[in-house]
Amino acid sequence: MVDDGVWGERHPFIAQIERRLLPELRIKSEQPHDPIAVYRVPAPWRLVGAGNYAAVVAHPDFPEVVVKVYAPGRPGLEEEAEVYRRLGRHPAYSECLYYGDGYLVLRRLNGITLYDCIRKGIPIPRQVIDDIDEALAYAVSKGLRPHDVHGKNVMMRDGRGVVVDVSDFLKPEPCGMWDDLKKAYDRFYLPPLRRVPIPGFVLNAVRKGYRLLKR
């Protein structure tokens, strides 16, 4: 557990998770390379997002944190907690406040993903790219290997870049995904095009084509 001295089993939020959220949440991993399926989120909890491993939910009474719940059968919880332990506190990352059986409590990062910036025609300044570069270099300095860093896993917040998913930062193999995204930013993300919305189906086609190319 990564604990700041306040969070623990007696914290009222942990009781909410253990007694209300986990017994009623229904999530399932149906395809290993697709986001998990979310069938039920009990009120007043709200779904924030879903990745390949877990769903992220929030409670209105605790707006500063989110809960990342791993789907049954999906590994990686202990590894992600270890990543956060090594990262400690850094402005471009969240922080793990507590972890229990199948879930993590994370400090919430607000912003908009770079994927949604492109989809909505919201310009992404170079500062965001530089911030993420610095954050990934910091992770490397802590003995981590940034992996699976793409447009849905990084965000822009107040004009600065943040990394929202570190679940694969202990994988041993190298990953050039972020470097490829930077090359696309420099080559194709020209100023006249930055306010032009790109439909989601086009971005998904690009994502699938990229995966095929990298196989």
Automatic annotation (TrEMBL):
Record bears the keyword Transferase: yes
InterPro entries: Kinase-like_dom_sf, Meiotic_Drive_Suppr_Kinase
Transmembrane region(s): none
Keyword presence, Heme: no
Domain of life: Bacteria
SUPFAM superfamilies assigned: Protein kinase-like (PK-like) (SSF56112)
Keywords on record: Kinase, Serine/threonine-protein kinase, Transferase
Annotated GO MF terms: protein serine/threonine kinase activity
Name of protein: Serine/threonine protein kinase
Organism of provenance: Paenibacillus elgii
